[in-house]
From TrEMBL:
Organism: Dokdonia ponticola
Entries under InterPro entries matching the protein: 5peptide_repeat (IPR001646), PA_immunity-related (IPR052949)
Protein name: Pentapeptide repeat-containing protein
Matching PANTHER family: ANTIBIOTIC RESISTANCE PROTEIN MCBG, PENTAPEPTIDE REPEAT-CONTAINING PROTEIN
Pfam families: Pentapeptide_4
Length: 189
């Protein structure tokens, strides 16, 4: 049976040195903690908040993220595609999630606010009703992705192949419409 951690606060812990204890973390906060390249396998985070933490190249195999908030976190190269998709729910604010893997994830209604999502792979992900508020999506991959009713109005630098994604009801800004027409070689003045 895994350990249960309730209402705990963790600050400035380098888990690459201290080691991380797998278990169920419920309503815990992590501030300025380091998780780079760790395997957080078979761990559950329920209603937890991570602030200014480093998850660079972290492996989330079998990890449960339910109602989890990431604020100011570095998640470069994080592989979220192997998370437990049961009860999946995250919110990201002011995070750097470049080169992350979100392949086939159910990210319905996920809110990305002020995030860098450069070269993040959203192939076959469900991003219906997701909101990308002031996010940089340079070279992010949307292939066979469900973007129905997603909000890209304040997002920048996205390129979306309208023939390979579902976009019914999605919202885009006039200034970024070029990212929807790139494959057609259209010139806009």
């Amino acid at each position: 049976m895994s350990q249960l951690f309730l209402d705990q606060q963790y600050k400035e812990i380098d888990y690459t040195v201290k080691g991380f204890t797998a278990g169920e973390y419920d309503n815990c906060t992590f501030t300025d903690c380091l998780f780079p390249a760790l395997h957080l396998s078979n761990t559950s985070f329920l209603e937890c908040t991570f602030t200014d933490c480093n998850f660079t190249n972290t492996k989330f195999g079998g990890t449960t993220l339910n109602d989890v908030v990431f604020k100011g976190c570095k998640m470069v190269g994080a592989d979220l595609s192997v998370c437990n998709d049961f009860m999946w729910s995250i919110h990201l604010e002011d995070c750097v999630m470049d080169l992350a893997n979100c392949y086939k994830l159910n990210l319905t209604k996920t809110h990305f606010k002020d995030c860098s999502l450069k070269e993040t792979d959203f192939t076959e992900a469900n991003l219906s009703e997701a909101v990308f508020s002031n996010c940089d999506l340079t070279n992010a991959i949307f292939d066979q992705t469900d973007l129905q009713k997603a909000d890209f109005r304040t997002a920048q630098n996205y390129t979306i192949d309208l023939d390979r994604t579902k976009v019914k009801g999605a919202q885009f800004s006039k200034d970024e419409v070029y990212g929807l027409l790139t494959k057609y070689g259209v010139k806009i003045s």
